[in-house]
Every structure is written in structure tokens, then in C-alpha cells.
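Example 3.2
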Amino acid sequence: NLDLENEDYKTKKLVRIQSRELYDGFIDKPENKGYYLHKSKSEDDDVFNTRVKLSYYDNLLRMIVKARQALFWRKTPTLEIPNYLEEYLEDIDGRKSEHMAFFQNITENAEVDGIAWVLVDKPSVSIPRVLSEQEEIDFGIRPFMRFIPCENVIDWGFDPNTQKLTYAVIRSEVEFPKMPGIETPKRKQWKVWTRNTWQIYYKSEEKN
């Protein structure tokens, strides 16, 4: 059952959702204003609806996080980057992200969600021999880092001896290429990463 969630993920899910909604200004939208406002027992519907309509959300959480991030990044931090990644600092994720901007995004998301996940990988090719460095450059084969939103990483495990991560399960919804005249709804996807392999699973359409 790939929908099994890590105990830590389940324990912190509600707080993480609330923190993200408050940071993103979810309750400042007119249709969501009543989500975090509670109706008292002695309050009739008209009074409550008026209070919801007149309410205003001052996003202090975003202001605090931005201020803390500005303080943290006031001086350029010293980052321990593996040697094999140094030549890719101007494009650390393969999507044109400069490494400092990439890690600043990581620390900001970690402060909001309590954790941030970064995938480090290198594509492989099905060629039965070791490629030269120039061949890897020609094929576009290079290591990269990728930010993974914490709500998508639902399960993980560690080696009890080394305390290194042994696997992680990433759950998401993906869209397949559209075909003329055919609806292509999103499908749930699970990507299971280990230290050496990864596999992708989809929910069977027959079982909904």
C-alpha cells in the first residue's frame, strides 16, 4: 500500500497544512474567510456572516518569515557543495536556477513547513559501457538537485546503523499528454526512490 504515510508525516500534517495556508494567504480570499473563524453559540447567522465579510487577515506570518530569511541571508552563507556539482552552480537544478537562489527557496519553505526535501540525482542511459566525460556532456547527463514539496513526500525510512535515508515515497498527481477529443484527467502517481533506484507506480483505472 503506497498510500501508507510515515508516522511523523501524519502527526505534523494538520499543523503543516495550517502553516502553509496562513503563509500563502489562503484565508484572505473571500470564499475562504470563514474557514478559520468560528461561530459562537450565541451568535446568529447574520451576525457571523457580517463578521466574516468584514474580517481582514493581516499576514504577519509571511512578514516574519521574510524578515527572518533576510536576516539569515544578509551575509552569504558558506555552503559545502560536493566537487562534482561545482561546475553546475549557475544551474543547480537543470532548470536555470542559480544555487544561492535555489537554497534560499529551500530555507524559506523549510521555515514554513518545518522541513524541506531536496532530491539529488543524475540521469542514466541504457548504454552497455561507461561513458566518457565528453559523451556525458553531449548527452546532457549531469547531476542535479530538485526541490520536492514536503506534502508530496509521504513516507521514508533510514538505515538504523548509518542513519542515512534508504527510501522515500513521493505522491503526486500528473497530467498525461492530451489527445484530440479525449479527456485526460490527472492520475495519482507514486515515485519510490531508493539510494540506487527509482520506480513509478500509477493507480489502476479498473480499480478507480
